[in-house]
């Protein structure tokens, strides 16, 4: 089973166990997403069993960043979790089911894995992280 | 012939004790029959005589059996032989029938030494025949072995030239239609690549204006965008074909990372060849190398996680859950496409970033270097496949090669080795 604890906590998990229950439930999922994204410098919406999500977490950890991770499959309210997943899919414009992981930096949407990698390669990700206070020189 | 037999035989019976020097025809009755038969078929020779003598012994033995037959049958055939046999027996009581065959004074009885010699002769003849058979068989094997290694080499060569489309996928099955399609498109892409490279070369030599050269460079980038798009399409249907690198030459395949080149390695190769660079450009290139390394590492770890998860899924569990297990595993396997896509994405982004960091002329030279590098890697694969390998000579030739290598190096040890 894919465990968040096994990463040795290089990042700060959301309040409550793996963010369970504290963030999902009730209200517009888009609003919820925006709210959560604004709370931390780097926010990753993920699925605990997803390997690409694991890759993106490793990317940020490798850069020395502590992202806040919300495992949508471990939300207290599974329906709310699913709603948020669908909302994120709409936000990034994904046509297929593979929406997650999705990354927000400084409250602003960066995108899914391909966008994150493209921004890292073209050198725009690091300044963004620094501006958000997630990375120090 | 039959009527004359007994007389002749009788004659010989009486005269055989004295007529040792006669030809084989004058041998004992037994020998006569056999020798007569053989005289008609074969020329007189020691071998045939030996053979005859051995066959006559055999005949002698057979006679014992036929005697029984004759007694029971009383027929014409057997009777003659039994008649024969009786006389034969009479003969053997007197003297050795075989002695006559030798054509020497054969009045001595058939002693142990002679018997042994005859047995040895028979044994030698048998061994000689056996040896010939074995030699013929070994020859056949050797020929087949040469043919087999030749076929293997041809196959290897044909595979590399992409001719062998029907059934040599890495997975062991036939090439899927998506894979076959990709291989075909890739072959065309390689041809286009050569054309683009000669355009770049011509543009650089002709000292085109930057704006003109930019067009050629941008066209080359689009050319690469095309192959990444193609791979993306293929990944949906046959990700294994891409990730196992069946479409690439062996040398390329050896260094394959997630279905293609490793961006950080490419940059490492380019750094020394992209001169002269401004300080800002150098920083840009090193930063690019660093970030691509980080991205590669992250993707590799993700892939490891996928493999581990897959192993856990199909490893344990009760048999009842078998089908469900497989369904889950299939779902996990589908993620492979995502990783190959992201890897290609990384490759594409790296090339675009290079274009941004470098000037137009630098970029033209850079892409020429890249194209030439992979061209050489592919050529290396072909050379490797068609290098001479003497499988028959084996150790001899390897020693020869070692000796040749030693001769190239002028050192003291060179002499001590001889």
UniProtKB/TrEMBL annotation, chain A:
- Asked whether the keyword Transferase is assigned, the reply is no
Q: Which UniProt keywords apply?
A: Cytoplasm, Redox-active center
- UniProt-listed InterPro entries: GlrX-like_pln_2, Glutaredoxin, Thioredoxin-like_sf
Kindly give the Gene3D superfamilies that the UniProt entry links to this protein.
Answer: Glutaredoxin (3.40.30.10)
Give its localization: Cytoplasm
User: What family does this chain come from, according to its entry?
Assistant: Belongs to the glutaredoxin family. CC-type subfamily.
Tell me the protein's name.
Answer: Glutaredoxin domain-containing protein
Automatic annotation (TrEMBL), chain B:
Chain segments annotated as coiled-coil in the UniProt record? 134-161
Would the keyword Glycoprotein be found if you checked this record's keyword annotation?
Answer: no
GO biological process terms on file: DNA-templated transcription
Task: Spell out the Basic and acidic residues composition-biased ranges.
Answer: 57-66, 96-114
The family annotation for this protein states: Belongs to the bZIP family.
**Which keywords belong to this entry?**
Activator, Coiled coil, DNA-binding, Nucleus, Transcription, Transcription regulation
CDD domains, A to Z: bZIP_HBP1b-like (cd14708)
What domain of life?
Eukaryota
Q: Which SMART domains match?
A: BRLZ
Q: Look up the record and report any one GO term of the cellular component aspect.
A: nucleus
**The keyword Nucleotide-binding is annotated on this UniProt entry:** no
Name the InterPro entries on file: bZIP, TGA_domain
- The identity of this protein, by name, is DOG1 domain-containing protein
Ranges of biased composition (kind: Low complexity):
12-21
Q: Where is the composition biased (Polar residues)?
A: 22-37
| Domain DOG1: from-to ranges | 179-387
Sequence segments annotated as region (Disordered) = 1-115
A molecular function GO annotation = DNA-binding transcription factor activity
**Location relative to the cell:** Nucleus
